Amino acid sequence: MRSLLRSPMKPLRCITLLAVLACASTASAAPPKTSKAPKQEETVLAKDVRVRRIAPGVWMHITNAGKDWGGTAANGLLVEDGDASILVDTGWTPEQSKALLTWAKDTLHHPVRAALVTHFHVDRTGGIPTLDAQGIPVHGREDTALRAGKQGNPVPSKRLADAQDFGPLSVFFPGAGHTPDNLVVMHPASGVLYGGCFIRDAKAKAMGNLEDADVAAWPASFKAAREHFPNARIVVPGHEQPGGPELLDHTEALLKKASR
């Protein structure tokens, strides 16, 4: 934040400035309507790849699709793990994953040692070929691997259990929702809950792409996820901006609307 210039002021200007600051202070004292993740500066790695630090040791990556998907932005995580890091979801393309791996190694100095994908769609799995080429294991549920293969999307080579620790992360399959195989991922040390497309952003008016969704099962699965991870402080959806626990309430309300 830029500091105010300390040049001499006339008394009237001082009074005016103090009045403005007092008004700003009074306005900011009111409690916010929503608890948002701290706004952080983004680092641009390529025209379609950005990273943003959202908690100590936790980075959100944002990758944009090509014209086939309307340039849609998708989120993922890069989580520091000792001297290395873990990639959660790979971006849309091998080139995007390459940019993330290069940045983690050369700038963050925490090279990616492993990755996991939260479901079989290409915004989660598209970068797998780059990780395979660099000998970095990519983990996913058995169901995710089967569905990715049938869809013609890249397939994770390693398998995840439905509930397990994965380095500093806790991985949980709550049941079907956005897709039949969707995982949610928690970083307990920071309180970051990454829901992928299982959780909607604050501005969403509906549940998004339902082509592979199980809308009937989603509410019970969502309840299971909230019970399994009750201490979320920062919530990252699969698309758009992160926020606080209000994103969970918002998603739950959208689910009730969708199931009527």
What does this structure look like?
The chain is 29% helix and 25% strand. The chain is α/β, with parallel strands linked by helices and 260 residues long. It has an eight-stranded mixed β-sheet with strand order 1-2-3-4-5-6-7-8. It has a five-stranded mixed β-sheet with strand order 9-10-11-12-13, with no helix packed on it. It has seven helices and 13 strands. The protein is globular, with a radius of gyration of 21 Å. Helix 6 runs antiparallel to helix 7. The termini are far apart. It has a single domain, classed as Metallo-beta-lactamase, Chain A, CATH 3.60.15. The longest helix is centred in the N-terminal third of the chain and has 19 residues, at 11-29. The relative contact order is 0.12. Mean pLDDT is 88; it is low at 1-38. The chain has helices at 11-29, 94-106, 122-125, 128-133, 142-151, 218-228, 246-258, and strands spanning 42-46, 49-55, 58-64, 73-81, 84-88, 112-116, 138-140, 158-159, 163-166, 169-172, 184-187, 192-196, 234-237.
List keywords for this structure.
260 residues, alpha/beta, Metallo-beta-lactamase, Chain A, eight-stranded mixed β-sheet, five-stranded mixed β-sheet, 7 helices
